[in-house]
Design a protein that fits this description.
Oligomer: heterodimer
Shape of chain B: globular
Number of strands of chain B: 19
Order of helices and strands of chain A: EEHEEEEEHHHHHHHH
Strand content of chain A: 5-15%
Structural class of chain A: alpha+beta
Distance between the termini of chain A: 60 Å
Largest interface: A-B, 79 and 81 residues
Structural class of chain B: alpha+beta
Number of strands of chain A: 7
Radius of gyration of chain B: 25 Å
Number of helices of chain B: 18
Strand content of chain B: 5-15%
Number of helices of chain A: 9
Radius of gyration of chain A: 20 Å
Largest sheet of chain A: 5 strands, mixed
Helix content of chain A: 25-40%
Chain lengths: ~250, ~675
């Protein structure tokens, strides 16, 4: 198929960017979206132009590196997939596709379609862990029986890949879904309860410092999340935060 | 034993590690604060090592090329992690895990290292649970297990099909705790360009900031390389696009021996290649072989009809299917080790029974598991005499609960519903058992340079068992390195900070700059990917699942020529002083072009078949691997002396005191 691409090009963080038009022929349905961009880049290199830079790594939907706002949606039109698993069979011959970086003040553009998501790391560093030494000298794993439903729910929250689609989808550029996924995982497990008060306070404080917006319950994040992280996690984080504020 | 000293402690196998820990030197807490350690790579091995070393009090700097430590490729491991907990009471023990690993590795790994791995395996699970890793549980609240290939017990712990992700996020969280304390400085989007040696010891690295393009010097008292494997030498593999051999290869060029490069794992259950545009291959977890049955049609005309689209797999009667693994290996059936399953698939496809357009695919079928689980579920749900449709519906629900994310992934990629029609799978490059040679302390042949996880060669011999990579990465990082590195650093307490303005750093930086300038100055005919794909084709066709002397000799020559062509004619766009993904790729491919040649040389010299290394000249009448313990019971450690084809061989003889060498049989 033949596609008309409108791609955001930006030399570096301090230069202004703009949309550039490209036409690409010979795209097949079995290609992934990133393989389509690979072909475009091979064409550009052959012409002596600089290829379009985009983040990607595992190309199997788990590392969370790939991003891309495709026709206005983070990770494109398909549901529950990252851009690397989006296949061109979801598009038609003659389509125009607009490709932009994830947009948020807290995610500054580095080059072309690559953004800086280190704010996410700093939120995790503020409290996204259980303060246990890694010596291995803990209790036997089966000494902490955990209700299967709680374990399953914690697992569902823990599957967040930290891609930032929730932020890119949100009109407020809120990172509540991301932050709440980690808060929830630990809030649901007995090991995590011990530091629950400090954790939620520290992570929320960092989230605000990074310049992410607040949640106004639109729910776009849940719809666009490639891993189906539930909005319930935000409710749980709000409850944790409120009760932490009371406990002080 | 020559210059290779494995430093295996004396004493009975089961006591070696405890004895060693009691014997080695320690660094007191106040002195640890004056010692710097660099950890390159933040996957399971690197992340775990960084967190633990920082927690002990050392000053740690971590480096990863990804934009966050959480994205290291350990994240993609699906099925699980082994540990000899014997929670199922099915006869598991440290010895049995040790035995299975040695046998699975076709008797080409070191007894003492493997026993230590088994010994600390249980601790890993304890540690991870304490960190909040949400492993799968039974209704009673206890941890659940499943089975993996090559073993007769259930010792694999898992978190759905995302075990690697959950374990890595555990290590990442442990790192974050130390970053928050200021004990780890994390350098993301940084690539190690070279290792710096001062007075023969590893004392730092030259790194490139991948955003600004700046070249940086970083010094330390020791350097840990936890940079993963080199599967991307094949271009198409299940590795991440950025996975590369640069750090290990740079260390190799500076004096670290490279061991058993030809021991590569071809994983049997991956989604087949669909076309020339393909950039990577996707694994379907080995856990699927717990319930999936692998087959091809018995009759050639059926295989042809399927390939031509005239017949569907569901139309082939039970008696016309060849469940070739169950036929050839009745004891282990579909759960034979990976090398055996891969070769068996290749054998059937080479014989013309492949089931996709290219003839390179076999079926992985869940129909009988769906029926079996459906019947069971109907019984436990109180449904008497359920009809076929109810059974299938219930069975599909059970399968979805177990493997839902894998089935979804398959459907997204292939556009077929694996609940209704069998999956098509084919072997693909997945893991490299070979790597930097290390002694019992995980130190390479360069003092102060350590290698952990997939980057070293030590534990898996010629074939790795499923769910053992996660175990080894975490064992090395959490429980081995933190002890052994202290022994080395105890002599460094008076050294003081290593300066970065020495002539050694200057020289190393100069070489890095010159190399990049050379990469940028090619004539500009072909892109980096063009060369990478060409290299991949040579590797897959001549150094892949089956190898022979003629092909390997050709490969050595072709790779050498390709490398020359690359340096003359590669086209790298952009500039050195800015973000430049083409330049990043070019540096990595340049090293693959050297490693590939050594790989072929190693495969050519090893005149036997063992594990993942199958030489067509050395096979039994039934087509099984024919090992030669008399002549090849050793680790081949290669010393860099210039061109890879001139590398010098050093042998570490493998001594088996606790296990009797046998022909590996899974029949």
């Amino acid at each position: 198929m033949k596609l008309y691409l409108k791609i955001w090009r930006q030399k570096d963080a301090s230069s202004p960017g703009k949309i550039v038009d490209y036409t690409l022929d010979g795209v097949e349905g079995d290609m992934s979206f990133l393989e389509m961009l690979d072909i475009l880049n091979e064409d550009l290199i052959a012409k002596g132009e600089e290829p379009v830079e985009f983040d990607h790594d595992c190309r199997e939907g788990i590392c969370g590196t790939c991003s891309l706002q495709i026709n206005g949606e983070p990770h494109g039109p398909d549901r529950l997939v990252t851009t690397c698993q989006l296949h061109m069979r979801k598009f038609n011959d003659g389509d125009t596709i607009v490709i932009e970086p994830f947009r948020a003040n807290a995610f500054p553009v580095i080059k072309d379609l690559i953004v800086d998501r280190s704010a996410f790391d700093r939120i995790q560093q503020a409290g996204g862990y259980i303060s246990v030494n890694t010596s291995g000298n803990t209790v036997d794993a089966n000494c902490i029986p955990i209700n299967k439903h709680a374990a399953d729910e914690a697992m569902d929250a823990a599957t967040c890949i930290g891609c930032g689609a929730c932020v890119a989808a949100c009109k407020n550029a809120s990172a509540m879904l991301f932050t709440s996924a980690k808060v929830s995982q630990f809030a649901l497990l007995p090991q995590g309860r011990v530091e629950a008060v400090e954790r939620v306070q520290n992570m929320v404080r960092q989230m605000d410092l990074e310049g992410f917006g607040n949640c106004t319950n639109t729910g776009a994040c849940e719809v666009e999340c490639p891993k189906g992280i539930s909005l319930t996690n935000i409710a749980r984080m709000n409850r944790e935060y409120l009760s932490a504020s009371v406990k002080g | 034993m020559g210059i290779l000293d494995s430093k295996i402690p004396s004493g009975p196998l089961a006591d070696k590690w405890t004895k060693h820990k009691n014997d080695i030197n320690l660094v007191n807490p106040a002195n640890k604060r004056n010692i710097d350690i660099i950890v390159v790579g933040t996957g399971l091995a690197g992340g775990a090592a960084a967190a633990t070393l920082a927690e002990l009090g050392y000053n740690v700097k971590t480096f990863c090329y990804q934009d966050s430590p959480r994205r290291a490729h350990s994240i993609a491991a699906q099925g699980g992690i082994n540990a000899a907990k014997n929670y199922q009471g099915d006869g598991d023990s440290n010895y049995r895990l040790f035995y299975d690993t040695i046998k699975g590795g076709d008797y080409r790994s070191r007894e003492a290292n493997v026993y230590r791995l088994a010994e600390v395996s249980g601790n890993i699970i304890d540690q991870c649970v304490a960190q909040g890793v949400p492993f799968a549980r039974e209704y009673g609240g206890m941890l659940d297990n499943r089975s993996f290939g090559g073993v007769l017990v259930s010792r694999t712990f898992y978190a759905k099909g995302q075990t690697g992700q959950q374990l890595l996020l555990g290590a990442y969280a442990a790192m974050n705790r130390q970053i928050n304390r200021g004990k780890i400085q994390s350098f993301t989007r940084h690539e190690m360009m070279d290792l710096v040696l001062v007075d023969g010891k590893a004392r730092g690295i030259i790194a490139r900031d991948l955003v600004s393009g700046e070249i940086e010097r970083h010094s330390a008292h020791a350097v840990v390389l936890a940079t993963g494997g080199y599967g991307n030498v094949f271009f198409l593999s299940t590795n991440a696009m950025g996975s590369n051999v640069m750090a290990a290869w740079r260390a190799h060029r500076k004096g670290a021996f490279f061991a058993n490069p030809c021991f590569t794992q071809i994983h049997p259950t991956c989604i087949p290649v669909s076309g020339e545009h393909q950039s990577k291959l996707t694994l379907m977890s080995e856990s699927l072989r717990n319930d999936g049955r692998i087959w091809v049609p018995k009759k050639m005309e059926d295989a042809v009809a399927i390939r031509e689209g005239r017949l569907k797999p569901t139309q082939i009667a039970e008696e016309d299917r060849d469940y070739y693994l169950e036929r050839r290996y009745p004891a282990f059936g579909n759960l034979v080790p990976r090398d055996v399953a891969s070769r068996a698939a290749k054998e059937r496809c080479d014989a013309g029974f492949g089931v996709n357009k290219t003839g390179e695919a076999v079926y992985l079928d869940f129909a009988s598991a769906i029926k079996r689980y459906g019947k069971e579920k109907a019984l436990t749900s109180g449904i008497k005499n359920p009809d076929e449709a109810t059974i299938i519906k219930l069975g599909e629900e059970v399968i979805e609960a177990k493997y839902g994310n894998l089935f979804q992934m398959y459907e997204k990629i292939v556009d077929e519903n694996p609940y209704k029609t069998p999956m098509k799978i084919y072997p693909a490059v997945h893991y490299t058992m070979g790597g930097l040679w290390v002694d019992y302390n995980l130190q390479t042949t360069i003092p102060g340079c350590y290698a952990a996880g997939e980057a070293n060669f030590s534990d898996h011999g010629a074939n790795r068992l499923g769910a053992s990579a996660l175990m080894q990465g975490l064992a090395d990082g959490y429980f081995v390195l933190p002890y052994t590195i202290g022994d080395y650093l105890s002599s460094d307490i008076r050294t003081g900070k290593i300066p970065t303005d020495s002539k050694e750093f200057e020289e190393a930086e100069k070489q890095v700059r010159e190399r990049m300038e050379k990469l940028m100055s090619g004539s500009g005919i072909h892109s980096v990917d063009y060369y990478h794909k060409k290299l991949g084709k040579i590797m897959w066709n001549k150094c892949g699942m089956a190898r022979n002397a003629k092909g390997l000799e050709e490969a050595i020559k072709e790779i050498s020529e390709l490398r020359k062509d690359f340096w003359e004619n590669v086209k790298v766009t952009g500039s050195i002083e800015s973000k430049n993904q083409e330049l990043e790729k070019a540096g990595r491919v340049a090293d693959f072009l050297e490693l590939g040649e050594l790989f072929a040389k190693d495969a050519l010299h090893r005149n036997e078949s063992c594990g993942g290394h199958f030489r067509e000249e050395y096979q039994t009448e039934e087509g099984e691997a024919l090992r030669d313990d008399k002549n090849f019971k050793y680790v081949a450690a290669w010393e860099y002396v210039g061109e890879p084809k001139d590398a010098k061989l050093h042998k570490e003889d493998l001594v088996y005191e606790n296990i009797e060498l046998k022909t590996r049989s899974y029949k």
